[in-house]
Design goal:
- This protein has 330 residues and is of the alpha/beta class.
- Helix content is 44%, strand content 8%.
- The strands form two sheets. Strands 2-3-6-1-7 form a five-stranded parallel beta sheet. Strands 4-5 form a two-stranded antiparallel ribbon.
- The radius of gyration is 27 Å and the shape is elongated.
Amino acid sequence: MENPVVIISRNPRIQELLRNLDRVIPTQTTILITGETGTGKEVLADYIHQTSDRAPFPFVKLSLSAMPEDLLASELFGHERGAYTSATTEKKGLFEVANRGTLFLDDIDDVPLSIQTKLLRFLESGDMIRVGGIHPVKVDVRLVVASKVNLKKMVDSGRFRSDLYYRLHVYPVQLPPLRDRREDIPLLVDFFNRQFGNGAPIRLDEKVLSRLMAHDWPGNIRELKNVVHRLVLLNDSKTGLPDLPEDFLPFGFSSVSGTDCLSCLIGQEKTFEQVVHCLEGRLIRYAMAETGGNKQQAAHRLGLSPSTFRDKLERVEKGGISIYSSCSDC
C-alpha cells in the first residue's frame, strides 16, 4: 500500500481546486494539469489516482520529455516480437501495464505529432495497437496528463493537434506557482523538515523563514524541497542565515567577511582606510537590508549605539557608496 498523498495548502485557490476536483475524480474523465515546473503536477496526479476507485490498481507515470520517438512509441504502446531488430520478445507498453489504473503522462507538450495521433486513437476508442502489430488491444486506463506550457498556443502554432487538445481539455486544472501561494510556505517547510529530519526536525531561525517567505521560487515547490533538504543535511539542531544558498541571502551578506577587501589591500589597490571604509559599507548595507531600512534596528543588529550607527552611515554615504546599491569598490 502506497503512502497516502496529502495536498498541503491553506491557499483559497488550491482549496477550491481540490473541492472541484473531488467531484470529477469519481468519473473517468481525462484530466489535464498545467503549471510551471515544480508546482506539484505529479503529486496532484497521484492524489487523483489514490482518491479514485482505481487506487487498488497501478499508478504508472512517464515523462515524455527528451525521449526518442521510436523508443517512446514502444514504451507507451508496447511492441510485437520482430517489430524491429532488437525486439526479440513481445513487450507490453505502459497503457497495458496501467490497465484498470491510472496512466500519468508528464510533459505532454513534448510529445511528437506521430505519438499524438496514437494518443488520440486511445481517447476516441479506448484501444491501442502495439508497434509492429495489427490487432487493437483494449485497455481500461484513466489518463492524466500534465503540461508546463500553454497547449492552446502550441495548437495555434501547429505544434500540437487541435483534436487531441480538445480531447485532453475536458477538465483542465491550473496549479498556481509557489510565489502566488506564499501562505503555504511555512506549512511546506514544516512538512519537508519533518520528512528529511526523520521525525527530529531542526529548528529554523525566524530570519531563515523570512528569507524563504520572501524568495520568488522560480523552481516552485521542488526548489523549496531541495533547500529544506540542504538545511537539514547541514545542521543538527538549528539553522541561521549563513546556511541558506547565496541567492537567498540579504544583499552583501555573502561578502561581509571582507575577503575581497583583503585582496584589495594585499594587492595595494586600496589603502587601509579605504578598505575599512568599504567593509563598513558592506556591513551597513547588510544591516539596512536585513531590517528593511530601519536605522535603529540596523544599529542594534551591528551592536552599535544609534548615534554611532548614524555617524558611520553618514560617512559611508558621503564617501559615495549608496547603501541600496551593490558595492563596486571591491
